[in-house]
Design a protein that fits this description.
Radius of gyration: 18 Å
CATH superfamily: Hotdog Thioesterase
Helix content: 10-25%
Protein name: Acyl dehydratase
Organism: Nocardioides massiliensis
Pfam families: MaoC_dehydratas
CATH architecture: Roll
Structural class: alpha+beta
Order of helices and strands: EEHHHHEEEE
Family: Belongs to the enoyl-CoA hydratase/isomerase family.
Largest sheet: 6 strands, antiparallel
Number of domains: 1
Number of strands: 6
CATH class: Alpha Beta
InterPro entries: HotDog_dom_sf, MaoC-like_dom, MCH/BMMD
Length: about 160
């Protein structure tokens, strides 16, 4: 795994290689996160927002919205600083799976593995294929999938 201290200040396509792995810092999910996400997404499903209803359900308490987990994963990856300056466009989210519930009090981190690198057909940008895993404090993968990213080439390079 590469730590932020080992990373270049500015990353470009040329700095990435298949097999690189990164691990983000952790972030604890709060009740405020669920309430805020429900408010701006309009997803007020009782499984997320109703303690009494959730107490009778499969998990015994409210669970985080699946897309809240995905959003947290992308935010944590952003904070790495590795992809921020070189990002051109998110290309897609493939095979995203919700493996386990995310609960209030869970502390999550994200791992990112570079699984593919290539230039665009025009040769004016790079494409990174990345496998992300959102992991809880018990080391359990709660969400995972592949997220492609178009990135800038090094100025004056290729």
């Amino acid at each position: 795994m590469t730590s932020p201290r080992e990373t270049p200040v500015d990353w470009y396509y040329e700095d990435f290689a298949v097999g690189q792995s990164f691990r983000t810092q952790g972030r604890t999910i709060t009740e405020a996160d669920l309430v805020t996400f429900a408010g701006w997404s309009w997803d007020t499903n009782p499984v997320h927002t109703d303690v009494e209803h959730s107490a009778q359900g499969r998990f015994g308490r409210p669970i985080a919205h699946g897309l809240l987990g995905l959003s947290v994963a992308l935010g944590l990856v952003s904070r790495l600083g590795v992809f921020e300056k070189c990002s051109v466009a998110l290309l897609g989210i493939d095979g995203w799976r919700f493996e386990r519930p995310v609960l209030v009090g869970d502390t999550l981190h994200c791992t990112v593995d570079v699984t593919g690198v290539r230039t665009t057909s025009k040769g004016d940008a790079g494409i990174l294929e990345r496998r992300l895993a959102l992991v809880n404090q018990h080391g359990e993968v709660v969400q995972r999938g592949d997220i492609g990213l178009m990135v800038s080439l090094r100025p004056g390079g290729r």
